[in-house]
Each structure stands twice: as C-alpha cells, then as structure tokens.
Amino acid sequence: MEEAVKPLNWEPAPGVGYTVTRRPDGGMHYIFTDTSDVTVKHWREFGIQHLFDSDRLTTNLYDLRQLEDISDEAIKVALELNSDPSVRNIRLAVVVSNDRVRRGLREIDALSAGSGVEMGIFEDLDAAQDWLDRPLTIIS
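The chain above was modelled as a monomer; its predicted structure follows.
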C-alpha cells in the first residue's frame, strides 16, 4: 500500500523570499532568495506548523545559493526550529554558494549540537541530493 504524502499547506505571500515544494520522499525542498524579516517570519510560522505534526523520518533540502549572506534573525529562527523535539526525525541538506552563508550555517550546526537534526552543507545540489538519498535511520 502506497503511503499518502502529507499536504504541503504552503501559500506564496507578498514579499516572501522563499518557495517550498514537496520532495518525492515526502520531505521539503526550500529555495530562498532572501532572509528579510517578512521571509523569516513566514518561514518560522510554516516550519513550526510542519514540526508540530512531524511523525516520521524526513529529509529536507534548503537551496541557499541565491543568498549573499544569512541574517541574524534567520540564524535565530533556525536555532529555535532546531531545538524542537521533532527535529530528531530530520536530515537536512543545505546548498550554499559562498563562505558567508556557510559560516552562518556552521554556527547553527554547532549551536544545535545534540538536537538530533543531521545537517550537511554542500556547494553542489546533486551531492546534497545523494546525501539525502542515503537510507534513513533513527537519529539520536
């Protein structure tokens, strides 16, 4: 019996600098074009809702290649979301194009140590996808 894919429940909004689609494995594929306050607020609300009903191991892909930098507020929200107990079920691949964004992600990864989220940082979308395609196991 084929498992039903959860609804995405994401709607574009004026001024929001990201899009999200459902990945074939049920995870999400985000593409960010900015980390403005309106974008980060929308992403936080969307992320919290999806963590609330997270019930299985999930792979998410964040494409941040269009970002020149990552805002302090985005780092703060990422840390908040990574502290949610549901992240123990998430493998997260992030694709970047520069060192400024990579440094912000390393800060998030270091400060989230022990949260249960498994995060990989990549420069190549295919490498990120290959990493996400590895078999999932319970992350502890």
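The beta strands are 18-22, 28-32, 58-63, 90-95, 118-122.
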